[in-house]
Amino acid sequence: MQLGAAAGKQFPDPVGSRRSAMRRLWLGALGAGVLVASSAGGEPLKYTLGGEVAGYADTDNVYVLTPSLSLGASQPTGAWKANASYLVDIVTAASVDIVSTASPRWTEVRNAGALNVDYQPQNFGVNLGGSVSREPDYLSWYVGGSFRVEMYDKRFTPLLGYSYSQDTAGRKDTPFSVYSLELERNTIQVGAEIVLNPSSRLTLSTEAVLEDGRQEKPYRYLPLFSAEIAPTVPRGASVDLVNSLRLSGEMGERLPDTRRRYSVSGEFATRDGDHTLRVSERLYGDTWGVLATTTDAIYVLGIGGGFRAWPHLRLHLQDGASFWQRAYVAEPASGQISYPSLRTGDRELSPLLTATAGGGIEYATSTIPNTGWRFTGLVDVGRTSYFDALYIDSRTSFLVSLMAGHTL
Q1: Which pLDDT does position 60 carry in this prediction?
Q2: Sorting pLDDT into bands at 50, 70 and 90, what band is 15?
Q3: CA distance 124 to 117
Q4: Helix (H), strand (E) counts: the chain
Q5: Structural domains counted in the chain
Q6: H or E stretch including 335?
Q7: Which structural domain range is residue 84 located in?
Q8: What are phi and psi of 28, to 5 degrees?
Q9: What is the DSSP string of 31-61?
């Protein structure tokens, strides 16, 4: 039996027409921005063509191959620039969560496109962007923009940004009009870039993300345990052990319908000749009770002959959501089964620590900026420790990326 499976809406959203109108308005404004920017000035344009192939694999049997293409155009004076990109994600998974539900390995393809335009005629600038992403059972689109002003001889540049996105999750081969879970997201960003001296800058920003809607995964079901057994289920318990301890039946994931995310971040960058150091810190908290800190550092070294290389380190530590439980309890009550009203099997909402180390190398055929060919290779290895989750207690991931770009 399936207990409490997330119920999707059964009929089209009555406010869908207003959302469609908003989407058309934003996309129209974005298109108008591209036309206005492209008509500004009579200078010949510079074009940049780029391609990337990225691969991801982890010890939980998830594999992703992502080829992508991008095309950019700009004025030599830098008054405006635009960029369009397209990517394909090919995901193959047989993770422990899939195995635990006796589901077969699956392969899925995601297509995504994005368009961005930036226009800065004087000391103020405007940026507009939009994107759309489609999977067999998922649709997501985004529109947003920001406004900035250069002040005090460009030593201080405040920024104000806003974006809106909508995600629709469903089931494969089922129309959204029959079953769908919708999520709306409004994001407000306030930040500033401060030039400390000719070789150093500090960037500060704060962000509020207001999420409303359903964030459950339609295919995610959780095992149930008796009140006596639940405390004895160990961290990282195997599928076989969980199956031997669990009650019959399962329940669907159920998350709060609202989430408010808040973050404060800062990045310090300094340059000394051919060497550049960038260090950033982000503090995060939300109304689900998740608190997190993320530290990132990269040191770019010019090694001559058109080559640059860099090591990269990242550390992410977080607490779990207030409703997170390793083992959820179901109890008979008045002839029915009682279980928590909020529950999740997403271990990314559990307490965890991720450490990432890697690096990259880049070769440029020309020392003049924005000319010639540029080739880049990246490798990152991450290790995540889950302190209070079922099935696995750690995961190792590998990310490799090869990029090439040419400016005409």
Answers
A1: 95
A2: very low
A3: 14
A4: 3, 22
A5: 1
A6: none
A7: 2-407
A8: -65, -40
A9: HHHHHHHHHSS-PPPEEEEEEEEEEEEETTS
pLDDT at 75: 84
The Cα–Cα gap between 211 and 259 comes to 5
What is the Cα–Cα distance from 22 to 381, expressed in whole angstroms? 41
Angle CA 37–41–43, to nearest 5: 110
How many CA within 13 A on the CB side of residue 407? 17
- Please report, in angstroms and rounded to a whole number, the separation of the first and last CA atoms in the chain: 61
CA-CA distance, 383 to 357, in Å (whole number)? 9
Residue 102 belongs to domain with CATH number: 2.40.160.40
Residue type, 396: T
With 0.90 as the threshold, say if the pTM is over it: no
pLDDT digits (tens, 9 = 90+) for 139-192: 999 999 999 999 999 999 999 999 999 999 999 889 998 999 999 999 999 999
- Please list, residue by residue across 268-293, b when 16 or more beta carbons sit within 10 angstroms of its beta carbon and e when fewer do: bbeeeeeebbbebebebbbebebeee
Q: How far apart are CA 308 and CA 302, in angstroms?
A: 4
Which residues, in sequence order, are CB contacts of 165 under 8 Å at separation 6+? 140, 141, 142, 143, 144, 184, 185, 187
